Structures are given as C-alpha cells and as structure tokens.
Amino acid sequence: MPVDPNAPVRISAYNWVPPFARGLVRDLRVRWALEEAGIPYAVRKLDARAERPSDYFAEQPFGQVPSYRDESISLFESGAIVIHIGETCDTLLPSDAKGRGRAISWAIAALNSIEPSVMNLATIDFFNPDAAWARESRPRVAAMVESRLDRLVDHLEDREWLEGRFTAGDLLMVTVLRALKHTDLVEARPTLAAYKKRGEERPAFERALAAQLADFEEGEAAAAA
Ligand SMILES: N[C@@H](CCC(=O)N[C@@H](CS)C(=O)NCC(=O)O)C(=O)O
User: Fold this and answer.
1) Which of 14, 22, 24, 26 to mutate to test the pocket of ligand 1 (most atoms within 8 A of CB)?
2) Which protein residues touch ligand 1 with a CB less than 6 Å away?
3) What is the pLDDT of residues 130-177, one digit of tens each?
4) Domains and CATH numbers, the chain
5) What pTM, to 2 d.p., does this model score?
6) What is the enclosing helix (H) or strand (E) of 133?
7) Alpha carbon nearest to ligand 1 atom 13, residue
8) Which of 26, 111, 164, 209 is the most exposed place for a label (fewest CB within 10 A)?
C-alpha cells in the first residue's frame, strides 16, 4: 500500500537515523501492520537529531516514534498501535476470542519478555562497547537473551508461526529478533532464523521496509542539497 500524504491515517517516523538503525526503527512495525491490513498512510517526518517540536508531545508523551492517528483515535506505543490496526484486520488478530487472546499474548511477550533483554544487549553493543561496565555485564546480558531465544525455539518446534498462522504476535516478534542482526544469536538457531526469514519475506514487510528506507534516503538527499 503506497504512502499517501492525503491518507486519513498518519504515523510518525524519523527522516534520518544512523546506518546501523535503518530498518530497525519502530515505525517499521506500524508500517508493516498497515501494509498487512491494506491501509494507506501518511508520514509525519521528524528530525531525530533535533528537539522534537513541542506539539509532538501531545502525540507521543516521550517524544519517541512511532505515533499514530486516524479519524477516531490518536495512539502511541508501537504494540498498542499494531493491536489497534489488528482490530479491523483478521490477518493480524483472529476474530475468535481464543485466537485473538493468544495473538495478544505473543505480542506482549515480544515486547515485554524478549525485547528488554535484546535492547540491553543492543545498548551495550551499539552505544557502550568499550565501557568497563559493559564488558563486565555483556556475558550475563547475552546469556539472558540466549535463554529467551531458546524458549522461543522450544515453542516454535516445527510451527511456521507462533500460533500456527501469522498474527500480530509474529509481526512484533520478528521485528524484535531483527534487532539482533549485528550478532549471530538468531542465525545460530536455524528454527529462529527460518522464522525471522518467513516474516521478512512477507510482501507487506518488504513494502514497509522499503518505505522506511526510502524516507531515510530522501532525508539524506535533502540534507546534502
Ligand atoms: N516502547 C516504545 C519505544 C519507542 C522508541 O524507543 N522509539 C525510538 C525509535 S525506535 C525513539 O524514538 N528513540 C528516541 C528517544 O527515545 O528519544 C514503542 O514501542 O513505541
């Protein structure tokens, strides 16, 4: 679904981030969910290197991306936004109560049980690799990530998706796993590597990623002009 500046749905994103973060910024989750749902969207582009415009805090209380608004609601937190989009998209949230509950369980597991340790590791590796505290704590932090990944492998066994069919839980889980791409922790687990690849091969994911990267290229070209 093309980005459409006149669409009633509007998300926020950055117009530039350093190369290591491209394809990982969390508006990707929202773009992907919108693509799965076939909903066109506009983008409010923010400068990551500048103070947020003061009106932005009404959209996202912490000044982060993404935010989301449509004709009826204004939301923040990527997980809440993906679940909101799923309310009208059976691909993301099954309409039966049990399937829906299980999908939401996995969505929260991705963000609450797995992402924190992944982010702890990423914070060390990207921002503090040489700090004494980071060198001392990295083995423990990495072991925590590995333990979570191993449980995920156990659950997946030979399932294609966490609940047998793709849901919002997979969308969020795959984006969390992608944040480990600077390590071999996912690739060392063939079940997880194949699972992540299945997510990344979905046409909706490919369109979402291309749109995020295109915005960074446009931002870079504008800065160079
Ligand atoms: N829990 C939030 C996290 C949002 C977040 O950390 N966004 C990052 C980009 S991926 C950001 O804007 N960081 C800048 C900052 O925290 O000031 C969500 O999932 O939406």
Assistant:
1) 26
2) 25-26, 63-66, 77-79
3) 999 999 999 999 999 999 999 999 999 989 999 999 999 999 999 999
4) 10-91 (3.40.30.10), 97-203 (1.20.1050.10)
5) 0.97
6) helix 132-156
7) 64
8) 164
